[in-house]
Amino acid sequence: MGVRAAFVVVTTSFLIGVLATHFVADSLTLWQSPATDARLWAAAQYYTLLAKAPSEMAFVLAGITTFGATVILWSLFDGRAGNLMFDGGSLFLYLSAISVYAYNVLPILTRNFINSPLSYGSIKEAPFPDILKKPTLELASSHLVCSVAMTGVLLLQAGRYWADGEDAGWRDIDSIPTEKSSAKGKSKSKEKEN
User: What is the domain count for the chain?
Assistant: First the structure.
């Protein structure tokens, strides 16, 4: 179980890192108000670079994503109740992030930014086109949804680790005082005083 959990944590952390790189553009549109034309142009330039990235990068990302989902499925069907709860929730969040990326991010990138004439460093002084404003904001919000879902996967895996540790008895049962042992200890100390 430990190796599978490690693979899930590593692949999920890698995907969170990939999504975190988009914060360069997402922060300009989501976290800084108002979303000025200059900020939208900068975000659009980043998304254009992302859309024009080599296809090998997309294949590596798809492979790592598929590997992570496969490991969660493998762990889910282990038959333990903890796996059903934590890995079931992890699988739901993982597949939610994949579906948001597949059905929101990828179509927006290919439809709006792959053939864009924007190049790095050519910030336009013209007003940002309204036709690109909504897709730019949707990309940023979709990246945020994916990041939150992947963070949820990490939290569920941490919860699973903690629950497994509690089940295995992290604490020494003999060192936990009970009512009987504390009463015996008090009576022995009174006898010693007398």
Answer: 1
